[in-house]
Amino acid sequence: MDDPKFLVYSVLAVITLATLRKALWDPKVDAIPIVGSSKFLSSYWNSVRFLANASNLIQQGYDEHHDVFRVRGRFFRWEYVVCGAKHIKELSTAPEQVLSHRAAIEENLPIRLVIGTAIGNNPHHQFEYAIRTSLTRNLHACFPDVRDEIICAFNDVLHVNSTEWKTLPVFPMIMGVIARVSNRIFVGLPLCRDKAYLQNNIQFTLDVSRSAQRIIRFPKFIQPFIAPLITNKNKGFATAVKLLGPTIENRLSKEREMGPDWPGKPNDLISWFLEIAEGAERTTPALVFQILGTNFVAIHTSSMAFTHALFDLAAHPEHLLPMREEVESVVKKQGWSKAALNSMVKVDSFLRESQRLHSGRAVTMNRKVVAKEGFRFSDGTILPYGALVYVASRATHYDEANFENPTKFDGFRFARERAQHMANHDPTQDVFKRQMISTAVDHLPFGTGKHACPGRFFAATELKAMFAHLMLNYDIKAEVDGVRPPDSVAAGFRIAPSPTGKVCFRKRMD
Ligand code: HEM
Description:
Layout: H1 4-24, H2 27-30, H3 43-65, E1 68-74, E2 77-82, H4 85-93, E3 99-100, H5 101-108, H6 111-115, H7 117-120, H8 126-137, H9 139-158, E4 166-169, H10 170-186, H11 195-215, H12 223-230, H13 235-258, H14 269-276, H15 284-315, H16 320-334, H17 338-342, H18 345-357, E5 364-369, E6 375-376, E7 382-383, E8 388-391, H19 393-397, H20 413-424, H21 456-473, E9 474-478, E10 488-489, E11 495-496, E12 502-507
Parallel strand pairs: 2-8
Antiparallel strand pairs: 1-2, 3-5, 4-12, 5-8, 6-7, 9-12, 10-11
Helix pairs in contact: 8-14, 9-10, 9-21, 10-11, 10-15, 11-13, 11-15, 13-15, 15-18
Bound molecules: protoporphyrin IX containing FE.
């Protein structure tokens, strides 16, 4: 106690804690229940629990509170979690100037800090628009290319015959196939088969996500100082410019020479971006960034969903034959087309069920309250200005109020529901219900409402075509009968399929 330094540090510590407490205290917020301890210091223990396994903490909150609760996800701030159909609906329809999707992305993925200011500053998110409109509209026209790439890619990675089973790690293999098939539509041949280009897209997503996860653990004012120590700057972006840049230069120069509708113009994402890009968006770096951004949102999400589906198929092999018969009968009548996929009701149901039980994260639909007065739900609950909000998607999918036997994998539950719906109601209604692409307040793998994933139509087409192709041409079984490789629970909200989990393949025997 005689040491004056100790006294000074103690006073400083008390002032810091008091300031922090004052900054975090808000009377309106006090009304929102806390998961775990509400005591000032011990609530910080929840941040540690949160980092270790957020999913359990969210499930605890869902079971205890059933509407809105908060959890100390980071040492310096609360995260708000919303549950229940009514609240989810209100969140999904709130205007952007009140509950902002964009501001939430910037908060959790500070792209300017992770990959550099010049590119991150581009506010015009043209790629969402092109995905929502041109990519979706062109799915029928581009289907033959998608199918061709699926056949070639699986031939290359599987290399199997009909006598011996080959046991392969699924996630890395599927990520390679999805990157290749997606890029057939994004950038076309030959780049979609260029190993360095594909690997850079995969690595960029991993690097950016990891760097962002680390940076956001620090308060905002410290982040610009921490970021340079954490990120590998924009190495992945520079590589993309080197590999994809010449293709884009070539498209730009053809447009300059022959106008926007030059003969032989490829029908791909580069062309669709160019159709809407203006001014500074029509430069090579800006266009490379958009393609890289699309790869970022498309490849990991789709690869995780497909890997989960393969693990589910291997663990529940009784589903294989009925789906194979369905694919065979549909293809016999209609051939391979986007429309034929719509008739594969069992395949669609299986993938939807797999997404219900394994949707990548414990939460979804991240928003930030940007209205100064906060966001008020119709029951009077107020989320304060600046709050980061999520929807408890996993707990919603596992709620027996929403699904019968919610923890049981039942691959054809949605096919049965659709059949029932057809039998009982106007069949035209069925188009919008219980399909893989249909979102609802109790089915959130793609979110729901106005920001629901615009790439889901493409993702569903790609994944269904891949799944149908595999089942038709290969026998598939678990490495150990009935055992599903365990999910990997990463820091924070993320729940990924096992990165090393294996499945056995051989060429179809019968
Ligand atoms: C199975 C694969 C996929 C899953 C599970 C998935 C899931 C999601 C989710 C949960 C959201 C956030 C919704 C919200 O916040 O309300 C989202 C947004 C988005 N996704 Fe996907 N996604 C997938 C594939 C794709 C693909 C293939 C593309 C592009 C081709 C894509 C493009 C986007 C974009 C651009 C957004 C942002 C939408 C906006 O800002 O309004 N996604 N996705």
